[in-house]
Amino acid sequence: MKYRFTRWFAGIIALLCICYLLLLIPDTALPLVPGTDKQPFAWDSNEYWSLLENRFQKARAVGCDGLADQISSDLTRIDSLLIIVESDTFSPDVPLFTEMETAFFELSVVLAACPLRLPEYANYYSRLRKSVKNQSAGWDMNAGPARDRIYRLLYGCRTAIEEIILQSLEHAIPGVIIETEEPSATPSAEILGVTVHSGDILISRGGAPTSALIARGNDYPGNFSHAALLYIDKNTGAISMIESHIEMGVAVAAIDDYFRDTKLRVMILRLRSDLPAMRSDPMLPHKAAEHALQRAFTEHIPYDFTMDTGESSRLFCSEVVSDAYRHVGIRLWSALSHISSPGVKSWLAAFGVKHFTTQEPSDLEYDSQIRVVAEWRDHETLYKDHLDNAVVDVMLEGADRGDQLDYDWYMLPTARIARLYSMVLNLFGGIGPIPEGMNATAALQNEWFSQKHRKIKKQLITSALRFKEQNGYTPPYWALVDLAREAAAEYR
User: What is the pTM of this model?
Assistant: First the structure.
């Protein structure tokens, strides 16, 4: 009897070992995605950044009393350039825009040393953003010169403001900046001190390492990783946020739940009221949001890991917005996003992405049909955003050199069992440990990526504190990237 039990027990152990070994068989590698004729944007301005940092150091030595006249002169110069831009239409390649960019960058290093007039500078940036977007309505936004120009001015000059904020907490501009009171006829409510309307779009940045990957893994690295559509009930005034999450697909959340998730920054966007379609029907944004809300309540719409904007049975976050507006005849993302870097494509493909001409949340800001209503950020979360970005930028440099997403191979059987468990929960409307549509290998690679990001970031935080102790100021972004490279080298 004891002999039979021993054989039975040994058989069970052998069977479990065989199952474990079978579950260790790697997933079939996805075919490499063909390249495109696009080239990722690159500033290629390391010498210029060093020159600006040297000017900042000299400005700190001079002090506010000695900088007052220069600041007034530089602000007057920017105002004069803006008056010209606002008075006529120009092609994206005119020297005027280069002069504008230079003026903003060069004043930023002086204001970082003496930020007393930062609010005026921020107001000029709001004027710049509105006027450049008006200009871009006549540009071919699928052409490189136009995309480069709007990115350099809007993203570049906002980055200049943020560098000032990070150097001057006590003089920082308010957390919520109301940029324009774009009129709207749709139901309204108030959040973050801003009047919002049904059909408004909120783009935001999450706190997870993968949020930084989404924001930066683009031909035009951006600040935002998530998009959501806002619906306001015309009878009750209740706010609903329609969004798509990796964990559950399309869902509806109350506004408090929306902000309960980590948000490093939020921008509120609104369709322009002077568009022909809006003049014909000012309620179009509300109808778009209502369509998205009804779909979310009546259908289970899984998350679209492939990022296929041509198919709507699955939706990633940007598609929730574009699909809703497409339903009412508005095509957003007039210039689609491109992901051309071989390394970025390889990593995103490992997570299930198959379409690299798509709709990135950051790029909606540049759509000329959209007004920026308000922007929210604060010093603490802004610094975290910059740290996360620097680490991801360096990790993606490694991807372009051939670094692969790794994972703990011995955990693959456990992950596959977890995925099977998740699939059962999904059948009954539940949420499992592995998102619907993600395979076990991708889940492990995602965890590996996050762990590596956290380890490099931990070292970067230490290095950045040491930089500040030695130099007396917070490292600017280009210095953070250099420090992140050193931290990544130590990690390897």
Answer: 0.92
